[in-house]
Amino acid sequence: MRIGELAGIVGVSTRTVRHYHRTGVLPEPTRRANGYREYDLRDAVALARARRLAGLGLSLDEIRDVLAVGGSGTGGELREILTGLDADLAAQQRDIAERRDRLAELLADPDLGPDSAVSPRMAAVLNVLPDGSGSRPGSRFAEFDREMLTLVDAVAGDADRDRVAAMLEPLADAEAQAMAEALYARLDALADADADDPRVGELARDLAAHVPDEMAAMMREQPGDASWLDEVPGGLSPAQARALRLMIDLVRVRCP
């Protein structure tokens, strides 16, 4: 039979048959004098086996191994491959179930937005941090902090993400939240101030005192020139930049 007849019997395309030949899944048949491939019943059986195994999710390499030696691959080898495939599917099912649970939580959120899709632990942190929607709507620093945390959530590994969330937990109580709101207000108040503004030094000390010990430890591990301050949306006034740089210096020299 010709390649089109073979493909039609098994229910695949002639392109699939040729691909199986190129990858070694299906041996090349003998050719007629005119150069055309000549297939027989054994080729149809092998092709049908390959199609069934592909439908189970086996890769071409795995199919080729199972069908090696004229289609007499061992049942033990196939069992091992299928056992591994079953384990992979079970893991995918668990992942899908977890993702659906997370989607259900998001869909139940009446204030669903682009940043709602952060990890559950980071979402819990963001829920207790000031969002600038109270008496000071539109606080640039409050919004910047939240944007940085959503960025950390997106790029950090699970361990680093959990570490950041854990170090922010001390900021969750009502007193800490009130202090954060007040500090944001004082930073915003320096929007048009010069670097020598008398409020800068005291604000830097209060900011440093508000930084949890775990976060202070991380800041000490990563010394630098605080160049990230140049990336704050909208830029910083000289007073704001100096207050934050002084705060970072104070935190880094804090005793562990």
TrEMBL record:
Keywords: DNA-binding. One of its GO terms (molecular function) is DNA binding. SUPFAM superfamilies: Putative DNA-binding domain. This is MerR family transcriptional regulator. Pfam families: MerR_1 (PF13411). The lineage of its organism: Bacteria, Bacillati, Actinomycetota, Actinomycetes, Streptosporangiales. The keyword DNA-binding applies. Coiled coil: none annotated. Residues 1-69 form the HTH merR-type domain.
